Amino acid sequence: MTFELPALPFAYDALEPHMSKETFEYHHDKHHAAYVAKGNELLVGTGLEGKSLEEIILAAANDSAKIGLFNNAAQHWNHSFFWNCLSPEGGKGALSASLAAKIDEAFGSYDAFKEKFVATCVGQFGSGWGWLVMDNASGKLEIVSTSNAGVPFTQGKTPLLTCDVWEHAYYIDYRNARPKFVESFLEHMVNWAYVESLIAKGPLKVAA
Ligand code: MN3
Q: Where does 21-84 sit in CATH, by number?
């Protein structure tokens, strides 16, 4: 396969004022595009060319000689996933009653979920990602963070929602205020219908 940059699933200015057109012009057209280009370059000659993106990421995660390929392929996966986690019609008001009940069951309440999600995103030192995941073994919802290009499906967890906490995700719109960015992400941008569709699909299991 060849990695391809997916189009944003909404207009560049669709999430304004919470995430600007300028942010997407850099974040999607420059940062994500660069991971795709570099990933394609590093894929050549690895013997992984016929595999799916998830299989390539898993193989590279388990091979220290392929750290560059892992970083670029996983960043491609993470960004493609992140765009789908955003919606102009998203945010707290888009949370269905059934999903709200699942969140209450896992975390006690939406406010407790929010507090933990924000704290996890803010507590990720340096670059990385905050995630809502489903543990494949227990089926439980959990909040985790990964550093740099890390992606939870290499650890037996199914990604359900992610917030990019690399500075390039928020510096144009929020400067250094990561907590404000993550709160705004939850309040105005989360595509909960997408999260719900992933829960319905069940565990993402990638063959080694
Ligand atoms: Mn990013």
A: 1.10.287.990
Token pair listed for 42: 């590093």
Q: Each residue of 19-55: pLDDT tens digit?
A: 999 999 999 999 999 999 999 999 999 999 999 999 9
The Å distance, Cα 144 to ligand 1 centre, comes to 17
| Residue 105 CA, ligand 1 centroid: distance in Å | 31
- Which of 72, 83, 84 lies closest to 33 in space, CA to CA? 72
Q: Ligand 1 centre and the CA of 8: distance in Å?
A: 13
92-201 has which CATH code? 3.55.40.20
| CATH 1.10.287.990 segments of the chain | 21-84
Kindly give the distance from the C-alpha atom of residue 169 to the centroid of ligand 1, in angstroms, as a whole number: 5
174: confidence class by pLDDT, cuts 50, 70, 90: very high
CA 4 to centroid of ligand 1, rounded, Å: 16
Segment holding 162, helix H or strand E: strand 157-164
3-state helix, strand, coil in the chain (%, to 5): 55, 10, 35
pTM of the entire predicted model:
0.97
Give the Å distance between the CA of 18 and the centre of ligand 1: 16
**Residue pLDDT, tens place only, 126-157:** 999 999 999 999 999 999 999 999 999 999 99
